[in-house]
Amino acid sequence: MQTNNRRRFLKSTVGAGAGFALIDPSSMAQGKLKIKKKVALGYDNFAVRAMGWKAQELIDYAAKLKCDTLFITDFGPFEKLDDRDYLQDLSKNAADRGVKILLGSWSICPTARRFKKDWGSADEHLKLGVRMAKSLGSPAFRVILGDSGDRLSDGGIEARIADTVKVLKRNKNYCVDHGIKIAVENHAGDMHSTELVKLIEEAGSDFVGANMDSGNAIWTLEDPVENLRNLGQYAITTSLRDTALWESANGVTAQWTAMGEGNVDLKSYFALYAKLCPDTAVNIETISGFNRELRTKDKEFWKPWPKGEPIGYDKFIALAKKGKPRKSWEAPNGIDKKKANQDYQKGEIARSIRYCKEKLGLGLK
Fold first, then answer.
1. Which of 36, 55, 251, 261 has the fewest CB atoms within 10 Å of its CB?
2. Res. 9: pLDDT tops 50
3. Which of 250, 247, 343 is nearest to 289 (CA)?
4. Is the pLDDT of residue 31 over 90?
């Protein structure tokens, strides 16, 4: 039954990228990935968070970058929330510029550390997002569970997964009636991909899928390619970036980077992507410039992992062995820090979109 549900779910999911299906094998040998059929390409608004832009400004920037999609993953950019006319006008304006808006927000797990009461209860938050997604023409509403700290909460991550599943099940009819699927992200070290699969299957893969975050996979000790292997068939939205990874004194250190500037095998990644989630748009979420050490040699590090090394840990270590240390980014001396940060973020996403178009063959434009 779950397999049939998943097939129906995948068949009905349209992440604004239908058509990306096959790889041209000859292109791999030439060093450039060439997709025979195109997938939509866009950006996650968190990539330019320092700008403080409202929705219309984000749409304008998406058009400037020649993006097909704009993934607004929080409610902050919207001047009005539960206002159908306002949201539909934004959607129409974006569509006139060749941009499709996708929507997301934050935690719907009432017992998670990241849960906020800004939008009412978990159920009220979920329903608000579903209504907004419907008005915007977004086929899905992205949510999160929490962060790595929830792995140490009472009952561990399994208890937080169970609480999230309850919220989703209670609101299934509401989501289905509005024609909106729910995309749960692997977020900030909360869930390993196999744990997110468990959440999706328990909630119901006919209306719940994944927002696949390749960068966050690193924080759960996964090679992004392996994360894709587990989540790809469930992916309805994405927030992707590259990562530089290397062995360090206390374990492994990671630095998220612009696309093509880390040591993730992106050609293998997108060749597999074409097989597993051909109708899901690629949205880039660059969060670059800082180093985080995962102190895997420290016994304390493993407390959130009571079952020991997660599935695919060997692939994660193998990827780290290929990398070399990098310094964190710092704003140049003598330059306004806010402007330097804004320029840095815009540079990271612009280079990433260009790389995806020129080297990976992504994008409809």
1. 36
2. no
3. 343
4. no
Please give the domain boundaries of the chain with CATH numbers for all domains. Answer: 39-358 (3.20.20.150)
Q: CA 178, CA 172: separation in Å to the nearest integer?
A: 10
Report the alpha-carbon angle 45-245-199, nearest 5.
60
- β-bridge pairing 69-72 and 242-248: unpaired
Provide the token pair at 18: 């239908």
User: Nearest Cα to 217, choosing from 299, 126, 285?
Assistant: 285
Q: Are strands 69-72 and 100-107 parallel, antiparallel or unpaired?
A: parallel
**What residues have CB less than 8 Å from 123, skipping those under 6 apart?**
167, 170, 171
pLDDT at residue number 32: 58
**Residue 180 in contact with residue 172, Cβ under 8 Å?**
no
Contact 61, 26 (CB under 8 A): no
Percent of the chain with pLDDT over 90: 89
Structure tokens at 251: 């374990």
> Does the pLDDT of residue 3 top 80, yes or no?
no
Compute the distance between CA of residue 21 and CA of residue 356 in angstroms, rounded to an integer: 16
pTM exceeding 0.85: yes
Taken in order 100, 103, 283, 57, is the CA torsion positive or negative?
positive
Cβ proximity of 160 and 103 under 8 Å: no
